[in-house]
Design a protein that fits this description.
Layout: H1 2-5, H2 12-22, H3 29-40, H4 48-70, E1 74-75, E2 78-79, H5 81-85, H6 87-108, H7 111-133, H8 142-167, H9 172-198
Antiparallel strand pairs: 1-2
Helix pairs in contact: 3-4, 3-8, 4-6, 4-7, 4-8, 7-8, 8-9
């Protein structure tokens, strides 16, 4: 419900385009980790689910852009947005979701949390660009591959974990530890995801 409610727009096409991928069968891993991390430190605010959508919006935006770069036809067992409505619609839909995520975050008025989100999305863009630079590069080094995986995927999972504890007012040491847990989990997650492409 929160994923639908936070898509504030009067333009029906934007809703249709955004919801096509956003409400498809996904793991919802990032918002779940955010909620669990916040609750770990006793946070029970009514806004917890609304805040958690930030991470699903950012993730979905990155998938929309990724599908354009990869010329993907399918996503989550459905035709991709770029296949249905074209690359321009997919890019603009991703931009809309990015903007929506920051609109939600601004309402909370927490500079530390906003800093986390801006740093994270900047790193994600760097990861996408690095991946583009190494497209079809069979000689990519392990270090470059891990850098791409870390920036493209792991930093957002890390931010979901540290962000949840940050909102809950956890000590900085605990925030850092949860962030490290999320980073390692994100690297492992992407390693497995890439492996599935081969097997």
């Amino acid at each position: 419900n929160a994923l639908k409610e936070n898509l504030e727009t009067d333009i029906e096409f934007i809703k249709e385009l955004s919801q096509h991928l956003l409400l498809a069968r996904g793991k919802r891993l990032r918002p779940l980790l955010f909620v669990l991390s916040a609750r770990l430190f006793g946070y029970n605010g009514d806004d917890i689910y609304s805040l958690s959508t930030i991470f699903e919006y950012i993730h979905t935006a990155s998938l929309l852009h990724d599908d354009v770069l990869d010329n993907a036809d399918m996503r989550r067992k459905r035709p991709s947005v770029n296949r249905l409505w074209g690359n321009s619609a997919a890019v603009l839909g991703g931009d809309f979701l990015f903007s929506s995520s920051f609109r939600i975050a601004v309402r909370y008025n927490n500079h530390q949390f906003m800093g986390l989100l801006t740093d994270t999305t900047k790193k994600m863009a760097e990861g996408q660009i690095m991946e583009l630079m190494h497209s079809n590069d069979l000689n990519i080094t392990t270090q470059d591959y891990i850098s791409i995986v870390t920036l493209k995927t792991a930093v957002l999972i890390s931010a979901a974990c540290s962000g949840g504890s940050m909102i809950a007012g956890a000590p900085s040491r605990s925030i850092a530890k949860l962030g490290a847990f999320g980073l390692n989990m994100g690297i492992a997650f992407q390693l497995m995801d890439d492996l599935f492409d081969y097997i």
